[in-house]
Write a structure and sequence with these properties.
The protein is an all-alpha fold and about 290 residues long. Helices cover about 80% and strands about 0% of the residues. The chain has eleven helices and no strands. It comes from Pseudoalteromonas ruthenica.
C-alpha cells in the first residue's frame, strides 16, 4: 500500500480520495472504460426509435378509424338517397296509375274488357301501319337492287363486247386479206351495229375488192349516223374518184379535210385519187 501511494502523483491523490477510490480501483475503472466496444448511449437511441414507431402506429390506427367512420357515413347517406328516390318513384307510379284509372272511368271505359279491346285496336292499327311502311320500303329496296343488278349485268355485257371488239380490231389490223377483213368488220358490226369506224373501214376493204357501190352505200350509212366523221367522207371520195365522179369526189375531199385535217398528208399517197392528179381543183386542194 505504501509503495502504491508513493508512485501516485501528489495532485492525483486528492481526486482519488474525493471519489473514495483507491488507485487500484481507479485503474480498473479506466481499464473497463477502455474495454467498452459500443457506446453506452445506444440503448437510449433504440428506446427513442421504438417510441417513435409506436406513435406512428397509433396515428395510423387513428387515421384508419377516422376514414372508416367517414366512409360509413357516406354509404349511409347514399343508401338514404336511394331509399328516398325509390319511395318517390313508387309514389309517382301509383299517382300515374290512379290518374289513368280516373281518366278511363271519365271517358266511359267502365270495364277491363273495353280497355283490352281498345288497346288491341290501337296495337293492331299501329302494327298494320308499321308493316305497310316496311313493306313499301322493302319493295323500293327490291326494285333498287333489281335495277342495280341489271345495271351490273349490262355493264359486264358491255365490257365483254368491248373486249371482243378490241380483239377483232387487232385481228383486222394484222389481216392482209381484204375479204377476211370484211368478215371481221361484219363481226364487229354484229356486236356494235352503229360503229361508224367499222363501217368506214369495211367500205375501204370493199374498195380494195372493187365493190365501189357497196362502199358508197356504207359511207352514206356511216354519215347518217355521224355526219361529222371525216374518214367516211374520205372513203366516199375514193369511191367517187374510182368511178370518175370527180366533182363529187372533190366535194367529199373538202368535207373530209374540214373534219379531219390530218388527212391532207395522204392526198398524194392515196391510190384512188390517181385520176385526180391532173385536176386543177384537186391540185389547189393539195397546195392549199
Amino acid at each position: 500500500m505504501a509503495s502504491s501511494y508513493a508512485n501516485t502523483p501528489e495532485s492525483a491523490l486528492p481526486a482519488q480520495q474525493a471519489k473514495g477510490l483507491t488507485p487500484n480501483q481507479e485503474q480498473q475503472t479506466q481499464q473497463v472504460v477502455k474495454d467498452l466496444n459500443e457506446p453506452m448511449y445506444r440503448p437510449l437511441i433504440e428506446r427513442y426509435i421504438l417510441d417513435e414507431l409506436k406513435a406512428v402506429r397509433q396515428d395510423q390506427q387513428a387515421l384508419r378509424a377516422e376514414y372508416t367512420e367517414k366512409i360509413a357515413h357516406a354509404q349511409l347517406e347514399t343508401a338514404d338517397r336511394a331509399i328516398v328516390y325509390t319511395t318517390d318513384t313508387i309514389n309517382n307510379v301509383f299517382f300515374i296509375i290512379t290518374a289513368t284509372a280516373s281518366i278511363l272511368v271519365l271517358v266511359g271505359w267502365n270495364s277491363l274488357r273495353d280497355v283490352k279491346n281498345k288497346v288491341e285496336d290501337i296495337v293492331n292499327s299501329r302494327v298494320s301501319a308499321i308493316t305497310d311502311e316496311y313493306e313499301a320500303r322493302l319493295k323500293d329496296l327490291e326494285e333498287q337492287l333489281r335495277g342495280r343488278s341489271e345495271e351490273i349485268l349490262n355493264n359486264q355485257k358491255k365490257i365483254t363486247i368491248t373486249n371482243e371488239i378490241h380483239s377483232l380490231w387487232m385481228r383486222a389490223n394484222l389481216e392482209s386479206d381484204f375479204a377476211t377483213k370484211v368478215e371481221i368488220y361484219d363481226e364487229i358490226l354484229n356486236r356494235k351495229p352503229e360503229d361508224v369506224e367499222a363501217i368506214a373501214y369495211k367500205a375501204d376493204a370493199l374498195l380494195e375488192l372493187g365493190d365501189t357501190q357497196e362502199a358508197i352505200s356504207l359511207c352514206n350509212q356511216a354519215l347518217e349516223i355521224d355526219s361529222d366523221y371525216g374518214y367516211a367522207y374520205w372513203q366516199r371520195a375514193c369511191a367517187y374518184a374510182l368511178t370518175h365522179e370527180h366533182s363529187d369526189a372533190l366535194a367529199d375531199i373538202r368535207m373530209a379535210l374540214d373534219y379531219s385535217p390530218n388527212l391532207r398528208n395522204e392526198l398524194l399517197h392515196e391510190s384512188a385519187f390517181a385520176s385526180l392528179h391532173d385536176n386543177d381543183s384537186f391540185n389547189e386542194i393539195v397546195n392549199g
